[in-house]
Amino acid sequence: MPAETVTLHPTGLSLTTSAQAWYLRDKMHWKWHEIRAEVRNVQRKVPSFKAVRNAVERVRRAGKRGLPQTAYGNCGRQRALTDAQERAVVAFVKKWRAKRFCTCQYITKELKLDVTARTVANVLNRHGYYWRRVSKVTPLETKHIAKRKAFVLKYGKHTSAWWKKHMSLVIDGVTLTKAPAGLSGRQKHAAQSVGFMWMRRAERLSREVHTCNRYGVQLGVKVPLWGGFTGTGRFALRLWSPTGKMKKEQWAALVPAMRRALDEAAAPRPAGARSAFKVWQDNEGFLQQPKVYRRHGLQVVNFPPNSGDLNPIETVWARLRKDLAVREMQDLQDGVEITDAQYRQRAAQLLTSYSRAAENGGQSFLDKLVAGMPRRLQQCKANGYGRCGK
Question: What CATH class is the domain 142-185+219-382?
Fold first, then answer.
């Protein structure tokens, strides 16, 4: 059979890779930057956009004759997995893909498959699942940026002393998780940090698959908490609730407890003893009850929507999760199991410790958060009213 010689530039794409790029562009409708990240040139380097476009155009002009052809199917090999096994792999990923342990190696071990990890990955790719980096934040929409700008312009000029006086209480909810009782479950719980997961093309920023959740879906016993700290740096409110989300009537029943916590903590009021306490919160629907708040001497101030970075209590939750994770790892190493009540007590002790002054006599962690509000808002403004971190 006569052989045909083709000369390729080192920075160009081979015939096979050109066909792959054409398929991804014309059949799978990938974007150019996605194709460029997927293929490699003759030198095994990331090609330029021009090289990718030229390769795709060459295949288009050549038609079917320009595609590499083979005279055999699957190299004469038998399929590694049956249809039932492939369905089991896909079902496993659908159930556990938001967990760090959902890797090809773990899938083969859990389903007792006598194949390589590459085979499992090929099966998932054929079914539309790809191993991709998890996005940590969602992009801000134009309407969100507009509301963040209005918030920063209204409150960004105030000093740390103003925030200490006017921030009577900053509240938010968090769902903590106590480690499971079983050893295997506790090991998985301790190892949770979802950096990559199996996802479809259009799911990179989908909340339904938790790709935008900084902590992922947590294993273990759910422990919902609604808490808040005052402008004077005291963590005054801890409401352990059955669920994180509530109906308006359920939250209204907890508002008196919030008022009692403020009275006991001697929280600051903006303009004297008879003025209303200012409660700073996010935009959860069941929290929006200004009439109920007013009946109990409270005034609502909402942070902009989709702006957890502007709410300083989110920084508290981030630190609390880290501190709890350290203690949970120690429990695992020591073979210790704690009850739900002990877990809540541990979390409460940590939150209380955040109000204590530093060892060198400096500000407490909560005092620093209140004092840092002007800097936080200025950073938001400097970023074009985008994310300012925590």
Answer: alpha beta
Number of Cβ atoms within 10 Å of the Cβ of 130: 15
Neighbours of 203 (CB within 10 A): 20
Q: Would you say 253 and 281 are in contact if contact means Cβ atoms under 8 Å apart?
A: no
Q: What is the DSSP string of 149-171?
A: HHHHHHHTT--HHHHHHH-SEEE
- Model pLDDT, residue 320: 94
pTM of the model: 0.64
Output the pLDDT for position 1: 46
Provide the residue ranges of all domains of the chain, joining segments of one domain with +. 15-66, 74-128, 142-185+219-382
Quick one: tokens of 146? Answer: 């507009």
pLDDT at residue 254 above 80?
A: yes
CATH number 3.40.1180 given to 74-128? no
Query: In sequence order, what DSSP letters do the residues of 230-294 get, joined into one string?
Result: -TTS-EEEEEE-S-SS--HHHHHHHHHHHHHHHHHHT---TTSTTSPEEEEE---GGG--HHHHH
pLDDT of 273 reads 57
